[in-house]
Amino acid sequence: QVQLVESGGGLVQAGGSLRLSCAASRTIFSGSTMGWYRQAPGKQRELVARITTRSNTVYAESVKGRFTISRDNAKNTVYLQMNSLKPEDTAVYYCNVPYSYGSSRLVLYDWGQGTQVTVSS
User: What is the per-residue pLDDT across 59-103, written as a single tens digit (0 to 9) for each?
Assistant: First the structure.
């Protein structure tokens, strides 16, 4: 059963913009912090941004000032607006629910297919 569905990726030139969407079930979305992650070939998956139920946000240093995470609680959807895209932003982007166990930073659900973002130079 698919619980998190990412969309909105594509091919864009450097300096361009994309908006990603993550649709979640109400049971997952309600009361949960949501996160956007990305993974490039040969790289570890990294947290790009996260947003709490009260819309407090945290961003990776590499995307600060360029990306904006937001959520629509009525639609059970989290967004990632990506501006001023760079080739190094090329990756598969995923959404999930982050949580911590001691010093470990984990996610609550299995990874989905994600959505491919490719930025050409």
Answer: 999 999 999 999 999 999 999 999 999 999 999 999 999 999 999
Q: How far apart are CA 77 and CA 39, in angstroms?
A: 21
Taking only Cα atoms into account, the Rg of the chain, rounded to an integer number of angstroms, comes to 14
Residue 37 structure tokens: 């992650």
CA 82 to mean position of chain CA atoms: 10
In angstroms, how far apart are the furthest CA atoms of the chain? 40
Residue 1 has pLDDT above 70, yes or no: no
Residue 70, classified by CB atoms within 10 Å of its CB into exposed (0-12), middle (13-18) or buried (19+), is middle
Distance CA 53, CA 45 (A): 23
Q: Which two tokens stand for residue 106?
A: 């984990």
- 105 — phi, psi (to 5°)? -105, 115
Total residues belonging to the chain:
121
Tell me the per-residue pLDDT of 25-49, one tens digit each, with 9 for 90 and over: 988 888 899 999 999 999 999 999 9
